[in-house]
Amino acid sequence: METLTRDEYFPNSDSVVSILARSPQTYFPEHVHEFDELVIVRSGSGMNYINGRPAPICRGSVFYTRANQTHFLDHLDNLYLTNVLILPSRFKHVSHETIAKLLAQNAGVDSDPYVIGGSTLKRVESLLNRISDESEHAVEYSDLMTELLLGQLMIELWRGQPEKNSSQEEKDARLTKLLRHLNSHFEEEIDWDLLAARFEIPLRTLSRKVTDVTGMSPNSYLLRIRLCRAMRMLKETDKSITEIAFACGFNDSNYFSSRFHREMGMTPLKYRRNADSVTPPENQLQSRL
């Protein structure tokens, strides 16, 4: 497995950050870094693996990979994202312990990505452009400005989580709250009419907005969440295929096995047997960083 080094991705020995836009992603296998990585998805969809644990990602997804964690992306569908490579130990003006804490707050629950709304994403993209300019065109106090902007970026991302939204962004937050609800309640029977009413989004609007953000219909996105959870359980537990199917929201183990094979290119049983090798077959697209 390849290790991506500091020397390869940071312009000099004093650099604290490197901004890399992927438009779109290109092939690269599972790897580890010598640095921390904060990733913001600008558009498209895919599946993110950290230490072999899969999770769906889409526009507005934020996830954090610590140094020395294994990482790759799979099932890419026109995925555009920005990688923020960070070395907290090099911070001189802002406490690196503070930066490390802010990074950890952006890791999500159990390393799952979370989704920020469109208004937050616009502010984040503006900050990323400023950080990139400061780090690439160093002038007096650029190092201080870069560190302060990074701190602002991470606070913006933290505030952008659905439960942190202000009343002015409540309408924008409804969809992100719904997506987080799906990630937390995937095992339940989903009634889209009831969810539309609960999150105060007209049903037709809900379907269109979910498709706009995730690149998938609501049912397809829910299926991806369930399959990601099933993959984790196949790898991390000794539960039977039937038990996993029901635990992940499938009412029929045969249907689960059929959909798993269609989406993953192998049966659940074969995936379990190959669980120690989490990298997908070479013909499936992955992405560097």
Number of helices: 11
Which radius of gyration do the C-alpha atoms yield? 19 Å
Query: What's the CATH class label of the domain at 2-164?
Result: Mainly Beta
CATH topology call of the domain at 2-164: Jelly Rolls
Shape: globular
Sheet with most strands: 7 strands, antiparallel
Cα-to-Cα separation, first versus last residue:
13 Å
Which architecture name of the domain at 2-164 does CATH use?
Sandwich
For this structure, the quaternary state is: single chain
The succession of helices and strands, N to C, reads EHEEEEEEHEHHHHHHHHHE
Query: Which regions have little confidence, pLDDT < 50, spanning 5+ residues?
Result: 281-288
Strand content: 15-25%
Instruction: Classify the secondary structure makeup into a structural class.
Output: alpha+beta
Mean pLDDT score: 85
What's the β-strand tally?
A: 9
